[in-house]
Amino acid sequence: MNERFEEILEKYLNDRNSLVHNWDEITGWEHEETAIAYTISVQKQAAYVAYIFVGFMRSWMEQVDMSSVDEGFPELERFFAEVDSNWKPLAHEFVEEVKNT
Q1: Angle between helices 32-63 and 3-21 (to 10 degrees)
Q2: Is the dihedral of CA 11, 12, 16, 17 positive or negative?
Q3: Nearest by Cα to 34 from 13, 47, 19
Q4: CA of 10: how far to CAs of 2, 3, 4, 43, 82, in Å?
Q5: This prediction's pTM
Q6: What is the largest CA-CA distance in the chain?
Q7: What confidence tens digit (pLDDT) does each residue in 40-62 have?
């Protein structure tokens, strides 16, 4: 696995597990501002990781010449257009870094 992606995924999983299983041990959790900031941080990390996974999926679909699942669904067409332009290249970048090591 790509080192940068592994770090991103590991941080997300650790922070998510702390939030779900050990929220009372998070430093400053008793303060509303800290709890909100931590929760928002985990939410952003989750979205980032999810988009990267979708980028990997879209890249794989392209490699195996799989037809797009978004045809006829305008909401998905817009979503996947964003994924294809912003997140699929990042997934490619992570894969290329692994290939070059």
Answers
A1: 140
A2: negative
A3: 19
A4: 12, 10, 10, 15, 25
A5: 0.77
A6: 51
A7: 999 999 999 999 999 988 888 88
Confidence of residue 77 (pLDDT cuts 50, 70, 90): confident
* H or E stretch at 57: helix 32-63
- Spatial contact of 61 and 68, defined as CB atoms under 8 Å apart: yes
Rounded-to-integer distance, Cα 94 and Cα 57, Å? 13
CA–CA gap between residue 17 and residue 30 (Å, rounded) = 18
How far is residue 35 from each of residues 14, 17, 91, measured CA to CA in Å? Answer: 16, 14, 31
Task: Name every residue whose Cβ is closer than 8 Å to that of residue 35 and which is 6 or more positions away in sequence.
Answer: 23, 26, 28, 29
Structure tokens at 55: 């980028």
Q: How far apart are CA 30 and CA 28, in angstroms?
A: 5
Q: Which residue has the tokens 């392209």?
A: 62
pLDDT grade, residue 97 (50/70/90)? low
- In the chain the first and final C-alpha atoms are separated, in Å, by 11
